[in-house]
Amino acid sequence: MMNNTSKKPFNFPPGTVVRGKWYKQIYTIVKELGYGANGIVYLVQGTSGYQALKMSDSNVSITSEVNVLKSFSKVQGAPLGPKLLAVDDWEYRGQKIHFYVMEYIQGTDLLSFVQSKGFSWTGVLIAQLLTDLERIHKEGWVFGDLKPENLIVTGPPYRIRCIDVGGTTINGRAIKEFTEFFDRGYWVGGSRRAEPSYDLFSVGMILINLAYPGRFTKSGNGNMQQLRKAIGSKDQLKKFEGSILDALEGKFQSASDMRISLLNGLSHSQPVQQPKSKPKVSRPVSTSPHVNSSATHSRYQNHRNKKSSHFLETVLVVMIVSLLYVLYIYGELM
Does position 272 have pLDDT exceeding 80, yes or no? Predict the structure, then answer.
């Protein structure tokens, strides 16, 4: 689990230089991104810019995650997880530390994004997630540790991406990593066997988490009754209620089935809009007699001013012509 409940496997400060033993690439640690039972992830500065580096003292864990990323890279369509960039070892004070370097996916975690942009984004993003899960499941993998912290929203255009593949497990095996709030075994005592229905249970809990950002703990045995009550207490979840309950009860055969149910719930929840009548074209009519009379008076006054101006111009021209004529006669007499 990439969370803060387990002990940090390493604690390297910013500025620490990681030098690959085999390929001699150098990575400078910028900051810590997260840690869990199987390793710690740092944001590093490499020759190609910012990258994410995961290190562990377990070569088995690193090899397993590298295989997952390689498998994801072969899946057709948009990338599911981060792109694998390098695999190497680092010798530090006599200790061999295994690491791999992957694409640094910049964005906001799903919970923070929904809190910032609004709950209305939930449907389209979860539908995207279910599309990705369908592709993962068809390749024989189960994500396992699905939670908002492992889901990053990039863009715009906004797209959800899966990160931290540490919990990804081959279908049929025992789930390697999980977080209790999203775990089927924690809530209803269901199997922790890696299968599509395990991921879909987690998707249902993610929807609940988006409406309850602080989450909650189970009361008593923590069964479906508590979860049903939590769903029914939030108006935001009403349009997803059927999909969430079916996911929690394991009724979906695939992620595609849940996606269809989710979209149907969204379409049926849209308010019916009454057809708008065709607007009548009419000239604007003022309701103020005072404004109309003022406008009429202004036009009349302008007309009078123009007439006066023309009259004065005519008189002036006549006077000038008369003066010139008098001067001409005077000149002839002289």
Answer: no
Q: What type of residue sits at position 273?
A: Q
- Other beta carbons within 10 angstroms of residue 105's beta carbon come to 16
Q: Count Cα atoms within 13 angstroms, Cβ side, for 185.
A: 12
- Domains in the chain and their CATH numbers? 17-103 (3.30.200.20), 108-269 (1.10.510.10)
**Mean pLDDT of the residues in the chain:** 84
Cα separation, 164 vs 181, whole angstroms = 17
Per the CB < 8 A criterion, the answer to whether 165 and 72 are in contact is: yes
Catalytic residues: 145
User: At 154, which helix (H) or strand (E)?
Assistant: strand 151-154
Sign for the CA dihedral angle at 17, 23, 25, 27 comes to negative
Structure confidence by residue, pLDDT tens digits, 151-205: 999 999 999 999 989 899 999 999 999 999 999 999 998 899 999 999 999 999 9
* Concatenated DSSP letters of 12-46: PPTTPEEE-TTT--EEEEEEEEEEETTEEEEEEEE
CA dihedral 128, 132, 137, 140 (to 10 degrees): -170
CA 334 to chain centre: 102
| pLDDT reading at 274 higher than 70 | no
